[in-house]
């Protein structure tokens, strides 16, 4: 996993230590350097993906962060994204991203991840994200919960995006959020030539507890209007995203879905242990073979688990659940996880 190189500069040593401690404990994706004095910062010639700076380190003009004695190549902030850290009485610099220091940390992290993701999108043209589909031929009701658990596990080994392609998904209900943007918005942006060169997948991604996801459509008819060529374009874009793994929850979309299927590295087929599930699984594997899609297939057998969930899925329980209950017979699981590291 490529770590995000982050610089944090704040003269408030107590806050600096607390923030670095939180970031290091919350995720293993950051390689952090920090300064509490301007002299150390000015003398540093390292380059970073993200820089969190208070006004003391920004100066009068945030486009000129280093003094005139530093060599030109060290002055350039290159491809980094600069974010101003604001105290209660600070005023944001015009045209600069900013984060309030003393806000809810979940909100802080979500905004930080969004800023970082927007910047990473510009520099991932040579990336080759692994696309893993999750599908249930018998429409097993635990397909989406399994996808959440699986994504959360992969998240510990790399950057993961969950894309929900179900027509009647209840993902928004589970996470308790109404998304600003969803899959329809992203597909529209992809089809608009004037937007394509400037668009960032970060503008269309939502976050829940550190997991990035693209929300499902609000109207099933929006999915049925997407043609195979557009699905192929989506798969190509996801392969070049800043994520190591993209987990795609697949619903029913007719032959058009082959546009996505052709871009998958693997597909996980989620089923129960009954005869009906077995027959549905067999028919779908025959279909994949006939289409010659050349996708590596994994089978996951799940119990209905009514005793665990009852009538309601609790997102906190899902994200913190024991993975062995879900993943104990996923074939080649170790290889899948190591692929994102």
Can you describe this structure in just a few lines?
The chain is an alpha/beta fold and 341 residues long.
Biggest sheet architecture: 7 strands, mixed
In terms of structural class, how would the helical and strand content be classed?
A: alpha/beta
Q: Mean of residue pLDDT? A: 77
Shape field: elongated
Tell me the distance between the termini: 4 Å
Major β-sheet strand ordering:
8-9-7-10-6-11-12
- Strand element count: 12
**Percent helix range:** 25-40%
How are the elements arranged and paired?
Blueprint: E1 4-9, H1 13-26, E2 30-35, H2 38-43, E3 50-53, H3 55-58, H4 72-75, E4 81-86, E5 97-100, H5 105-121, E6 130-135, H6 143-155, E7 160-164, H7 171-175, H8 183-191, H9 193-196, E8 206-208, E9 211-214, H10 220-224, H11 228-239, E10 245-249, H12 258-261, E11 266-271, H13 275-291, E12 296-301, H14 306-309, H15 315-320, H16 324-327, H17 333-338
Parallel strand pairs: 1-2, 1-3, 3-4, 4-5, 6-10, 6-11, 7-9, 7-10, 11-12
Antiparallel strand pairs: 8-9
């Amino acid at each position: 996993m490529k770590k995000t190189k982050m610089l944090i500069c704040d003269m408030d040593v107590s806050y600096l230590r607390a923030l670095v401690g939180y970031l290091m404990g919350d995720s293993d994706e950051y390689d952090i350097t920090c300064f509490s004095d301007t002299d150390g910062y000015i003398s540093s010639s390292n380059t970073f993906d993200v820089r969190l700076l208070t006004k003391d380190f920004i100066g009068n003009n945030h486009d000129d962060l280093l003094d005139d004695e530093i060599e030109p190549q060290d002055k350039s902030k290159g491809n980094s994204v600069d974010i101003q850290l604001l105290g209660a009485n600070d005023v944001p610099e015009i045209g600069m991203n900013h984060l309030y220091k003393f806000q809810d940390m979940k909100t802080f992290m979500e905004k930080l991840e969004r800023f970082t993701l927007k910047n990473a999108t510009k520099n991932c043209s040579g990336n080759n994200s692994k696309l893993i589909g999750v599908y249930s031929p018998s429409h097993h009701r635990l397909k989406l919960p399994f996808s959440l658990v699986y994504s959360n596990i992969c998240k510990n080994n790399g950057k993961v995006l969950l894309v929900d392609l179900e027509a009647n998904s209840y993902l928004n209900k589970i996470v308790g959020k109404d998304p600003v943007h969803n899959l329809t918005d992203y597909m529209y942006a992809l089809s608009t030539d004037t937007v394509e060169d400037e668009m960032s997948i970060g503008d269309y991604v939502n976050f829940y507890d550190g997991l990035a996801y693209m929300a499902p459509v609000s109207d099933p008819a929006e999915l049925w209007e997407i043609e195979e060529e557009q699905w192929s374009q989506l798969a190509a874009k996801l392969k070049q995203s800043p994520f190591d793994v993209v987990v795609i929850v697949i619903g029913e979309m007719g032959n058009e879905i082959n546009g996505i299927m052709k871009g998958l590295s693997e597909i996980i087929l989620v089923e129960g242990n009954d005869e009906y599930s077995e027959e549905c699984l067999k028919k779908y594997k025959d279909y994949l073979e006939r289409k010659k899609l050349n996708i590596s297939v994994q089978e996951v057998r799940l119990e209905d688990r009514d005793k665990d969930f009852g009538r309601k899925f609790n997102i906190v329980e899902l994200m913190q659940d024991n993975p062995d209950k879900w993943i104990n017979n996923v074939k080649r699981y170790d290889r899948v996880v190591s692929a994102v590291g």
